[in-house]
């Protein structure tokens, strides 16, 4: 698969776009897994704070596996060695909001991956303020990612008007960087090995 990468000067501006990060099979797997998690009650409802009208799950198995698989791609983009911290997925519903914020240090290098927006002909841009203070509105097709400096780049979403949107989030730190102590999100184990199945 040919992958399109628009760096926009990641280190200077704070972000890059990685098109076609995930395959159609990956997208279908994540969409089905989120649906399963939602139906079995594994996701946490969000109705205040930074996120509204959404449900999410920390460290889902499929997400953690893709977190590891995608790391070498992001390392190639950045020219830096990374360590995983955690994966996360979120299901937004009509009226959903992501308020303007920056992430915690464990999200030094973050990626938000578009999985599914219903109806299928809709899209929901993510808004960012790059490191020069410029506002950017970025639309991602399913399987493509916005890679950004999560602890430095403000990001948000305007109120969601479609039926549902699924996002997969990956978080890393630079292996020898200022936030290396947040590797594996403080668990001291590889992300997949710390999971238990029931």
Report on this model:
- The protein has helices at 10-13, 24-39, 61-78; strands at residues 5-6, 15-18, 44-48, 51-58, 82-101, 109-118, 126-129, 135-138, 145-148, 154-157, 164-174.
- It is 19% helix and 38% strand.
- The chain has 198 residues and is an alpha+beta fold.
- The model is unreliable at 194-198 (pLDDT under 50).
- It is globular, with a radius of gyration of 16 Å.
- Strand share of the residues? 35-45%
Terminal Cα span: 35 Å
How much is the average pLDDT? 91
* Proportion of helical residues: 10-25%
* Total helical segments: 3
The geometry reads as globular
Question: Can you lay out the helices and strands and say which pair or pack?
Answer:
Layout: E1 5-6, H1 10-13, E2 15-18, H2 24-39, E3 44-48, E4 51-58, H3 61-78, E5 82-101, E6 109-118, E7 126-129, E8 135-138, E9 145-148, E10 154-157, E11 164-174
What's the gist of this structure?
The protein is an alpha+beta fold and 198 residues long.
Task: Based on the model shown, name its key terms.
198 residues, alpha+beta, 3 helices, 19% helix, 11 strands
